[in-house]
Amino acid sequence: MEDAPNSTWASTRTSSRPASHKSARSSKSAKSGRSQLSSRTTEETPLLAGDPSDDEEEDEPASATASLLRLRLRHGVPDTAKGGKARFWRKRWPSILALVVLCIAVVFIMLGFLATEGIEEYAMQAADFKPTKLSLDSLTANGIKIQVEGDFTMDASKVEKQSVRNLGRFGTWIASEVETGPTDVDVYLPEYGNVLVGKARIPGVKVSIRNGHTTHISLFAHVEPGSFEKIRNVANDWMDGRLGQIRLRGKAEVPIKSGLIHLGRQIVEDSLVFQGHDLPQFPRYNITRLNLREANDGHKGMGADVSIMVMNNFPVQLNVPPVAVDVLVDGCAQSELINVGTAETAMLEVRPNTDLEVNVTGKVEKLPHSLLDVCPDSAKSPLDVLLGDYMQGQDAPIYINCCKFPDPETPNWARDLLKDITVKVPFAGRDMGNLIKGFTMADVHFNLPDPFAEEGDPNSMPQISAIVKVDINLPHEMNFPLNVSRVKADADIYYEGRILGKLDLEKWQHANSTRVDAHGNEAPSLLVESEIKNAPIDIVDQDVFSEVVQALLFGTSSIMMDVKAAVSVKVDTPMGELAVRDIPAEGVVPVKPIGSHKGGHNVSTFAPKIYNLSIVDTSRTSIVLQAHANLTNPTNYSATVPYFNINVLVNETILGQAIAKNVEVHPGNNSGILITVVWDPYRNSGAIGALVGRELLSQFISGYNTSLTLQAHNGTIPSQPALGSALSRFPITLPAPSLSTPKKPDDSDPDDPDDGTGHKRTHFIRDATMHLISSTALFTLASPFNSTTLYITNLNATAYHDGHPSGKILYDLPFAVPPGLTETPRLPVDWSFGSIGYDAILNALGGTLKLSAFAHVGIRIGRWREQVWYQGASIGAHVRL
């Protein structure tokens, strides 16, 4: 049996009208001390108990009429969770109200037959009433018929003063038992205008009042509610937390007799105070089943089936008729509530101290626009806020507007009492955890930043386009069709726990979805596919980005990128299309490095092969060249490069820049990429640069195996200097492009074989003819350019045979080398008479021999001039007179 809540009785007035007297006696006040109320009650605490009088009060004259008893009424109140189910409590409100009124009535009856002179103080401390059953028998047209059972006992040991205890024992031994007649008890609310809250009609009761005797009481009473409006005001104050305490004032006129002696009609009037912690709380509850589905019987909208187990620790028995309520949620304004649907329950049978299973059926036909529209000065709608709280495991507040009774037999007074009462219910949220089951990206395309975009412009950031496939876990309770039509997201990307950047999909992207039913241990899921276009990526931490680039370029296993996003979706549901914003989602995205694609190719595969070299502009120190390049992209990613500027280096010395504009790179072979190279060693690296550049050109035209290094820098992508700086850590070294020279129709030499000295035979000097008598030489040259004329401004060359000099040419007059094959003027030769080399030439008269040459050559192309050296090997020379 649960204990009743502690209460404090405050006496107001008591009067009596004995049957043997026509005039009423004048009442006298009697003071009695109050005993401290225990903060915890037990089953031994009496229903009727008073505080012992002070010693000084023993000498005061007894009151001519019985003074008001100070009593404590006890009944069970469970220690409930703050967020109990309000709808269940609403349905119990009329019954609980009736039971409270009835308990007060029973107390007044006890007061009536005990409040005789001489045993008043004894009764206050010795009387004890323990309710054992409170049940609702039936609803009537005007109220409720209730059955009350309990045990009444007089326990003299609880009386503190011996004189009072002895007097009481003697008086109650003589009286033996008392009996009351039918009584009406009125209960008022003093703090609410002294309004009548209810009336109880109690039948007569006979009890034994001898010490230690227990009388079992069983009676049926009829309770009628009073002012509905005032009762609703009290209920609203209680539910809103504004009710610190409540005081009930009761008044009854109780006829009493003992045996054949009528003791008259006692008027008993007293107050009962319930402190805030003594007021009933919502019962604890647990949602055992939740099923969201399409509406039944061809109706539009959605239905919900909910099973709730309510912990009932009350000694109460009642039947609650079927009830329907409106379900509301918070709107944009603080006081605005939005009606979203209805909920109904069947008849409930409540049994004492027995947990109750409540089955609720809900229905939502159409969501109002006020629920879906974004609130002013906010980026979310009321629905977004509600779902966001729920999915993060927070209590999502909903409101229950009571009540409608489908059963026509429900009395009108119950409808009038409970209508327009709104209860706030904290609906327990569910932490969805990791909603992302799988995440893949296909047809990935990167756009590098626009070099001319202003800072903060999305075009100034790298952008990504891809087909994204996301497999989303669905809760088991979601059993209705839905289709995601559009998505957008604001995501943070992490690598090894550190933030890399932000992905902002601020525009709605088209999407479609497919439901995958549950199978085995796998829960149902929703496969969403969306094509995102040009989503900007804001790099936050450049050091992290550098590590990611390094792992992509040189790693062999996939790297894991953590994504934490606020996802917004537009969903087609049985209630129509709705937008749900900022749904929290997390996922892990594996990204394959370049080395893992197509058989383990690495970044060197990107090295371009240059052809169709041409000069488009010159200055005193620079040459601007254009060329076409072929490269192979071993990844599955494609990219758009609006502008790219990369340094050209030799031995860590910057000699120029290679520039690409509006380049589209797709997986596999890419040909015909136009590249502009600005060759300006002096401007980039000063005198050292000019020296290194001269040496490189000399080795290059002599056919040595030379190489160039391509390295990014801060200005590689002007609008993203940090990105270029990160890429600069990964230079690429590749062979210098070969010079393509035209061939004679009868040229059977397909390649340039290595001569064993570290360089290949060049085709720059294709042929030579030596004239002995005139001491001149004529050379056939093959220009490496298709449209540019090269000028040789001076020449200092020596010819060799087997390492022995054969002759020397000194020539200071410039001559042109146009595109294609061309012959030089007759160049004067100073023969090395008597040398082994000259003898070899004489011996070859009328035939050919192989010569080598070393020369210092002055070159001019447009305004650009340079002095280089040239070393040629295996030059075929014809010897003529």
Structural account:
The protein has eleven helices and 44 strands. With 881 residues, the chain is mainly beta. The longest helix has 29 residues, at 86-114. The radius of gyration is 51 Å and the shape is rod-shaped. The N and C termini lie far apart (138 Å).
Shape: rod-shaped
Number of strands: 44
* Integer average pLDDT: 75
How many DSSP helices?
A: 11
Number of domains: 5
> From the alpha-carbon coordinates, what is the Rg to the nearest angstrom?
51 Å
Poorly predicted sequence stretches spanning 5 or more consecutive residues: 1-91, 111-118, 741-762
Distance between the termini: 138 Å
Structural class comes to mainly beta
Largest sheet composition: 14 strands, mixed
Helix content: 10-25%
Protein name: Pre-rrna processing protein
Domain Tag1-like fifth Ig-like: 759-869
Biased composition (Acidic residues): 52-61
InterPro entries: Ig_Tag1-like_4th, Ig_Tag1-like_5th, Tag1, Tag1_C
Could you write a compact summary of the structure shown?
The protein is mainly beta and 881 residues long. The protein folds into 5 domains: 8-55 and 62-278, no CATH class; 285-427, Immunoglobulin-like (Sandwich), CATH 2.60.40; 439-596; 603-735, Immunoglobulin-like (Sandwich), CATH 2.60.40; 765-880, Immunoglobulin-like, CATH 2.60.40. The protein is built from 11 helices and 44 strands.
